[in-house]
Structure formats: C-alpha cells, structure tokens
Write a structure and sequence with these properties.
single chain, 304 residues, alpha/beta, Rossmann fold, four-stranded mixed β-sheet, four-stranded parallel β-sheet, 11 helices, binds 6-O-phosphono-beta-D-fructofuranose
Amino acid sequence: MNAAIRAVVRKGIYSGLEVYGVYNGYQGVVNGTFEKLELGSVGDILHRGGTMLRSARLPEFAQKDVQLKGLEKLNNFGLEGLIVIGGDGSYRGANALSQLGFPCIGVPGTIDNDIEGTDFTIGFDTALNTVIQAIDNIRDTASSHERTFVIEVMGRNAGDLALWTGLAGGAESILIPEENYNMDEIVDRLNKGKERGKRHIIIIIAEGVGSGLTFAKELEKRVNLDVRASVLGHIQRGGSPTASDRVLASRLGARAVELLIEGKQDRAVGIMNNEIDDHAFSDILSSTHRIDKKMIELSRELSI
Ligand code: F6P
C-alpha cells in the first residue's frame, strides 16, 4: 500500500495537484484527519509493508449519516477527489461517496485477491511469497520427521491465496471455499503418497473453509500419520513488498490520479492481461469473485 501511496503523491504533484493524506481510512474521513503530503513525505516507504497512512475498519461507514458527515469534512476542507486503497469494504464506502457526488477512485489492495475488475490485487504477490517461504520451512520438518502438515492460510472467503500457494508449494491437497472437499479422496491421496515413499505431506486449507486445527484433528482420526497444524495468521499481511507488488502498486496508483484528472467520478483501477484498466464501482461490487478453475484442475493433476 505504501508503494501505491507514493505513486499517488508523486504522480499528483508531478501533474500539478496538491495531495493530502487521510489517516486511518474512513475514520480519518469522518474525523477530518487530513495532512498535506509533499514529495519527501513519501520518501523511504517504497520497500516498507503496511501503510504510512495507517488503516482502520469503520463498519459504521455503511450508514448514510456517517457518510454525509465524511462528505461534509471532505468538502469543508476543500478536497476535490479521493483515492481509496483497499478491498470490498473500502470500495463500498467509495461507491457511496461517489453517489453522493464526491469523485472517488478505487485501487485494489488486499492479500485476498478477491476483487473483481483486476487479475491481481496489491499485496497478493507479497503474501504468496511469505506463505511459500513458510511452506518451504515447514516442509523441512515434515520431511525429516515424516509428518503431515495442515497449513491454514488467510484469504477471507476466497481461495486464491490457498490455491496459488498450494500450487507453488507443491501441496498434496488444497482446500478452498469455492469447492467442497471430499475427506475420503484426501485420505486416499495421502495413503497413496505414503505407499510410494513420500516423507512429507502438505495440505493447504483456506481460512474460508474452516479451522486448520479442527481439520487436522479430523484427518488424524482417519489416517495412521503424525499430523500437525500450523495457522500462519498475520505474518501473511506484513513485510517488505515484492518487486512485482511495488510495480503493480505504482502503475495502479498513478492511473488512479490520471482518472481523477480526467474527471472520472466512480471508477476502480485494475490490471487485466497486463493492461491497466478501470471499471465502475457498481460493476465490481455486483459481480462475484471467481477462482481460476483451470488452476484447481492443474493443482490436482500435479499433486498425484
Ligand atoms: O482481508 C485481508 C485479511 O487479511 C483476510 O485475509 C483476513 O481474514 C482478515 O483480513 C483478517 O482481518 P483482521 O486483521 O481484522 O483480523
């Protein structure tokens, strides 16, 4: 997110605009915590995880009276447009503000990769790499101690993080919310792997499917294996962003500024087939995120 903030500030100033940062998300909109940002304000943040503007969840922003309060703060301060970086909830707030007449542009930022209108969200690649490193580390114990590991990854209701890390980490089974799993098939797969001499077994479970700990206990009742569970948790959300995430954030942030300059009111930027694109909030919010079925198939074929 810092890379996107840097791109917005630098592109804005380069284009002759004044740029202000809003602290703590919609909480900052409602409280009017705005601060002018200069070129140097965003120096030395490109390689840092998190967001220099900090973040806050404000479920109350779904209420019209709270939105109007925010709108008043924005207008009174003399701001003319807002760029919102975030996921579904952030887009809902931006959509509401734009419907009230305040121009908003969305930039997709979440490790869940669950936003429509973009092939990738900012943070997804970094989280993938963090999870892969964890899987590689866990695999060492799995191999040397001949253990089965159930690794729970984040992703909210989406299975993207699980699917991609499962494929990249060579998991034997990947459990995602978009597909029902069959315990008999998983057990069969594990037993076959063991029969042909596999020393380690990795199962990735998306948090949207349920608890990795509970699943591990269920599995242990069905197999004659030493099963352990590991819940990766918030380590997946932080850390220095990958080069790919930095480039994506820079491209999307800069395009968001261009859209405001072009007078667009309610668009969200995204990357599709490596082209920067934009869509109306209403289109994005009304479509359901779909997972790549071919990748699910491929992961099955490769983990026999
Ligand atoms: O949406 C990003 C995400 O990291 C999800 O993957 C996860 O379910 C959630 O946020 C965790 O939220 P919190 O930090 O509020 O517990």
